[in-house]
Structure formats: structure tokens, C-alpha cells
Amino acid sequence: AQYVGMAGQLVQDVPKAKELFDKAADVLGYDLLKICVEGPKEKLDSTAYSQPAIYVSSLAAVERLRQDAGDEAIDKATVAAGLSLGEYTALCFAGAISFEDGLKVVKVRGEAMQAASEAQESGMVSIIGLDVDVIKQVCEKASEMTGSKIQIANYLCPGNYAVSGAKDACAKVAEIAKPEFKARMTVPLAVAGAFHTDFMQPAVPALEKALSEIEIKKPRIPVISNVDA
User: Fold this and answer.
1) Residue among 50, 84, 126, 148 flagged as catalytic
2) CATH code assigned at 107
3) For residue 1, is it within any domain?
4) What was the pLDDT predicted at 14?
5) pTM for the whole thing?
């Protein structure tokens, strides 16, 4: 995820990576690289900025691979996939969307999701060491105890799930998952809100509009969607 200092060394070592950040500044209207390298952390953690930061940094990392291993390393890829925001990176890598169009959509997505997050305090917690049925029980109990909604948001892998919901319900999950349900650990995530839930519904119209205004082409390689991965 995002951290202050991200991409700093990368742009020094890889000219093509620096070019991507220069293009990003033109698209976004602000110096994204400066925010990545200097912060402040509170600004970078806002999903309005962290989403463009992660998108551009991820594609800059592809340029590092290209510089170190040549175009053939890129051409060897037979499939692309990305988690959440990373799906836009995967679509760009696969040639379905241009770098600039992808960044335009990510900018709108981040700003709309930040607005939705600010409308209602919410967050996410990663729970490790429980199966999905027990995670559901944790969420149900946290909801009962707080009167607030929380649910599974990301099925990351067996034994590792992220839950999203109201801030008080997230805190309750973190409080009860280990002592009462024997989770191995819980990790509150550095995100602005309850992503991948109905809490983000207010962001949908702006994202739909942004997607309708760009060209989406057939990718050169398959892109695995988060929905059916």
C-alpha cells in the first residue's frame, strides 16, 4: 500500500518511471510524485491521493522490470490481475485502457470514494487465522454489540479476510476476534473507509460517468476480474 517515500528511488533509477509521474502531473493537475516522496502521511493516506499514487507507482514498477529484463519479460506475461484498485493497473498493463485514461478514472474513483468515506465514518480490518464461517460470526456479533453494519469485503485467501463497516463495528471486530474467536491476529487497514461495501454506493455514479468517457479496448492478454477470481 501507500507510504511516504514510495517511488522515490524508483524514479531516480528508471527514467521511464519518472516520465510516468510527469504525465501524471499533467493529468491530475498536481505533483503526485512530491506527495509520494514527501507526504504528509495524512494526505497520502486519503484515498483521493493514495489511489493515483498506487496506480502510477505500480506501472512505474513495470518500467523497472522492462529496464532490467527487457521487453521480453513484459511480453512473457500471459495473464494480468490486480486486487481492487490494482485491477485498473492490470487493465492498463494488458492494453485495455491507456495510462492516461486509467489515471483519469482512478482520480475520479479516489475522490468519489473519499467523499463517500467522509459522509459516514467507516473502515476495514484484516482478520487472519479464521475460516469464512467464523468470520461471519465475528461480524454478526460486532454488529449486534454496536448496532452498526460490518461484513466481509475481501476474500483474500483461506484464513485471510478483510471486513468492512462502520468505524465502531471495525473497532469491535478488532477487540473480540482474538480473545473470543481465536483469530491469530487482526490488522486495522490504513484506508479511508469501508471499501467493497454499500458504504461506497454514493461513489458509483461518478465512476460510471468516468468509465463511459474513456476508450476500453480488448486486452492483449486475459485480465482476471476480482469478482470471479
Assistant:
1) 84
2) 3.40.366.10
3) no
4) 98
5) 0.91
Residues of the chain with pLDDT under 70: 228-229
Closest to 146 (Cα-Cα) out of 112, 125, 126, 176: 176
How far is the C-alpha of 223 from the C-alpha of 108, rounded, in Å?
22
Cα distance between residue 123 and residue 42, in whole Å: 15
pLDDT for residue 229:
58
Segments forming the whole domain that contains residue 17: 8-117+203-224
Q: Verify that 168 and 67 share a domain, yes or no.
A: no
Grid cell for residue 145: 454489540
Total number of domains in the chain: 2
Among the options 117, 126, 196, 212, which is catalytic? 196
Q: Is 84 among the residues known to form the active site? A: yes
pLDDT, tens only, 88-129: 999 999 999 999 999 999 999 999 999 999 999 999 999 999
CATH number assigned to the domain comprising residue 169 = 3.30.70.250
Among 117, 115, 92, residue whose Cα is nearest residue 103: 92
98 belongs to a structural domain = yes
Tens of pLDDT, residues 60-80? 999 999 999 999 999 999 999
